[in-house]
Amino acid sequence: MAELRKPIPVKEAVERVWENRQDGYTEYISITDCDNRRLAEDIVAAHPVPSFPKSPYDGFAIRSEDTQVAGRNQPVSFKVIEHIGAGQVPEKRLHEGEATRIMTGAQIPAGADCIAMFEICQTYEEGDQPYMSIKRKMDSGQNIIEEGSEVAEGEMLIPKGTIINPGVKAVLATFGYSEVKVSKKPVVGVIATGTELLDVDEELQPGKIRNSNAYMIASQITRAGADYCYYGKLKDELEASYATVAKALDEVDILITTGGVSVGDFDLMPDIYDRLGAEVLFNKVAMRPGSVTTAAVCGDKLLYGLSGNPSACYVGFELFVRPLLQHRLGNQQPFLKRVKAELAEAFPKANPFTRFVRSYITYENGQLQAVPSGIDKSNVVTSLAYANALMVLPGGTRGFKAGDEVEVLLLENQEGQGEF
Amino acid sequence: MAELRKPIPVKEAVERVWENRQDGYTEYISITDCDNRRLAEDIVAAHPVPSFPKSPYDGFAIRSEDTQVAGRNQPVSFKVIEHIGAGQVPEKRLHEGEATRIMTGAQIPAGADCIAMFEICQTYEEGDQPYMSIKRKMDSGQNIIEEGSEVAEGEMLIPKGTIINPGVKAVLATFGYSEVKVSKKPVVGVIATGTELLDVDEELQPGKIRNSNAYMIASQITRAGADYCYYGKLKDELEASYATVAKALDEVDILITTGGVSVGDFDLMPDIYDRLGAEVLFNKVAMRPGSVTTAAVCGDKLLYGLSGNPSACYVGFELFVRPLLQHRLGNQQPFLKRVKAELAEAFPKANPFTRFVRSYITYENGQLQAVPSGIDKSNVVTSLAYANALMVLPGGTRGFKAGDEVEVLLLENQEGQGEF
């Protein structure tokens, strides 16, 4: 009858797969396509920013020494010798009593050491020659953005492993990265098992359910920054199933099967692991949901047997698969971000094993609050829809009151952390 | 000289563009491609879940009444008449003293009203006939997941406007949505202005900078759930520029230009608004950065003139453009999520106008903390790379101490809120 399996603690299960992590690959892609990818090289300033001294305002570039005699009743006049906009290069050096009309972002002409904003200047013409005058003293360097004052040449700007958001993309564009070196997306194979599974476009039939896990896992893989390859549903027959699994394992970086890992009479996966010669790292974890999660190593590849139960499958992916994908992607903080939160509703159920409760995080006056996102039955698929966190209730606890402090793993946080 | 512009409060600027919002469109897409899109219809349970009574365990389906005489020293025996796995439909009705061997997820046979798990059963054979016996009483309904016990038929599951995450996708698959009705992505046109701008693949030249804003805005548009269309850089010539803007405005849902909206001598946009007959909603906002942000309406389309300064451009997009995109996408909470946080570092600068400080949010013991993500100069592009929030420091305040409570707008939060 039922094979005896020894459950191991969650943390130990995480460690066993983590020890079998593999580094990822890199590739160059167009800056246009780099959103949400992770940098595979440090971004270092190839030039100072700004790369020339420039004006922060529309105004006049002058020599501050020429203004030292200026005062409320003593305007000083300047002959305007040039007029430059942003992107133009001043051609004339300023000498005593000369000014250059200059626009925001334009390069400071040689000889000038300050900018007088339009607001404090009077302009006039004599003949066709423009002049301006001011009635106050200026300091050397006033209103000038010096070369390199924002970023010095050679400055380390963004470390590799960083996810590319709009701000990072702006930095890449500034420094001319038309092609960006990023981590290559690992490919995760997905195979469903279970004769009860219908395709999503099939009519419901007695005794059967539609295959939601394959779509859910594909979406989780995508959210984790990887690509997926779906190999369909295993036939209820060992020889053909073995061939499908072996082929998939050969083609992908990591393989996930859903279902078929129990000790039920029709669960083929244990036999397939045998045939593959895979080393089973664990086949039972002391947690709810997901106690029948299996992980195995075959050559240098990880093979996960996640539960056929949607919630267990979901949790198993986030705990055991996601960190290894993040590692391959070069994230130095590959584990789900774990934070403290206040439990907003009582959770009176006892927890003989560590329980991961699908939860929703809100913010009340700067305080994180966690609410279970649905009835916590293993089979209730709808509670996953609102989950943005997993509450971690340690095994051996007897239930929690509203207001208790709990730990939660954030599912939509890109930052992560260094340890489980 | 400088045209006089009257700055309006940020909130009023947001309201003026919000009054000109347009509803979006919908489309059907394959479930395979629906990640991160927003539902354009309510998802209602088309059938109960489960759609048949099923077993949560591997075990034997029996009639509880047959176990009423069982006890520790009094085993009751059952003849095993059928053996069914998940997905199989039981063919035999149970009568007194009969049992069906049943796997997790399989349909309960007619006649049975409880499941005895393998762990409490003894199995044996007489001839080729399998039997099992148990030594305890079972209750009617014990270990049976009743039809509809997870979701009742007709139950409202997920409202339209919800973003499709892995859990939502699982629900869609469960109910057979091979095609999903989602909000169509609005298309935002992007035009850069400024003779100082080089393309990202060009060598740096004196007086010039690379065009980072167009790439940054494209990435912000993508993050906001919309598509972008880049029309390149305007020539420094009114006629051609007008033609480009008019063509773009005709082709997109919303048009953004960056730069050229100051009152500098070479800023063309004000003249182009005139030529288009666009109604300018505002051209100066009492905020830093981004005071020279412009918004205008032309027909039923919004036309934004964001600052050429990267930080001002970034903030202008998030405050004034993003909510209208979210509205078009059917998000009932289209504004950036605003939460309270503790300021982790002093921000001693006075704020004559409302200041939006690019910040990084962290969690310390369940408490949100905000740290400025870089020196807060308008031109410092690198501070955007680490920003996941904008701290809102009200105008008229004299600086803030570490530990002060501040409001922050979360940039990577998908939830949003109903009001600015």
Account of the 3D structure:
The structure is a homodimer of 420-residue chains. Chain A has 420 residues and is an alpha/beta fold. Chain A folds into four domains: 10-24 and 185-328, 3-Layer(aba) Sandwich (Molybdenum Cofactor Biosythetic Enzyme, Chain A), CATH 3.40.980; 28-46 and 155-183, Molybdopterin biosynthesis moea protein, domain 2 (Alpha-Beta Complex); 59-134, Molybdopterin biosynthesis moea protein, domain 3 (Molybdopterin biosynthesis moeA protein, domain 3, Beta Complex); 337-410, MoeA, C-terminal, domain IV (Beta-clip). Chain A has helices at 10-18, 166-174, 213-223, 238-251, 269-276, 310-328, 382-385, and strands at residues 26-30, 43-44, 59-62, 76-84, 98-102, 114-117, 121-126, 129-134, 156-158, 179-183, 187-192, 197-198, 209-210, 227-233, 254-258, 279-282, 287-288, 294-298, 301-306, 337-343, 354-364, 367-372, 389-393, 405-410. At the A-B interface, helix 2, strand 13, helix 3, strand 20 and helix 7 of A face helix 2, strand 13, helix 3, strand 20 and helix 7 of B.
